[in-house]
């Protein structure tokens, strides 16, 4: 069962993400990051890999794309805030973009 | 060479799109439409088909996705407004969503 991250988990789980370009969204318990790629094919190719993981985790991003740029927001609607699923998907997005 | 749509072309080319759920964007020479699908797999599957067409036409949408919803804005940055490419991609998006 997914639960909202507790205060101590935020330091240990969200902290490391903030060192990789993720940031807290103002006014929401959510994280965001902008991913830039070489071109549209690279950007959408990355989105496609992420999409398969998102479906597999049953946890989906809010995201927009304009050519080679993808903006992502992650939060867990079921718990009205950040959960371990957001941390997992954020880490996966980072590694797929490397 | 891509050119901005002329006034008479707007009636004949953009008019029919407005009858299929596309609308003018306020304050921009652009069109927008929200596509709703059954679930994320259907939504992203459609996006993937559109992405291949977009790359083939070398004309890319501004779009965002949250689960089964995709919001699209089309305009042609090179001509700072709507061109025949937007009309073509909008029609393709409609037919792929049918």
Automatic annotation (TrEMBL), chains A, B:
The keyword Electron transport does not apply. Keywords: Lyase. The keyword Lyase applies. GO terms for biological process: tetrahydrobiopterin biosynthetic process. One of its GO terms (molecular function) is 4-alpha-hydroxytetrahydrobiopterin dehydratase activity. It catalyses: (4aS,6R)-4a-hydroxy-L-erythro-5,6,7,8-tetrahydrobiopterin = (6R)-L-erythro-6,7-dihydrobiopterin + H2O. InterPro entries: PCD_sf (IPR036428), Pterin_deHydtase (IPR001533). It comes from the Bacteria. SUPFAM superfamilies: PCD-like. Its EC number is 4.2.1.96. Belongs to the pterin-4-alpha-carbinolamine dehydratase family. HAMAP family: Pterin_4_alpha. This is Putative pterin-4-alpha-carbinolamine dehydratase. It comes from Roseobacter ponti. The lineage of its organism: Bacteria, Pseudomonadati, Pseudomonadota, Alphaproteobacteria, Rhodobacterales.
């Amino acid at each position: 069962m997914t639960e909202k991250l507790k205060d101590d988990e935020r330091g240990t789980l969200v902290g490391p993400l903030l060192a990789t370009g993720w940031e807290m969204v103002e006014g929401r318990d959510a994280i965001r990051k902008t991913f830039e790629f070489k071109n549209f094919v690279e950007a959408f190719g990355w989105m496609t890999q992420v999409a398969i993981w998102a479906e597999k985790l049953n946890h989906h991003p809010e995201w927009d794309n304009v050519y080679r740029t993808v903006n992502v927001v992650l939060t867990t609607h079921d718990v009205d805030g950040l959960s371990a699923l957001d941390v997992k998907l954020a880490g996966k997005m980072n590694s797929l973009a490397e």
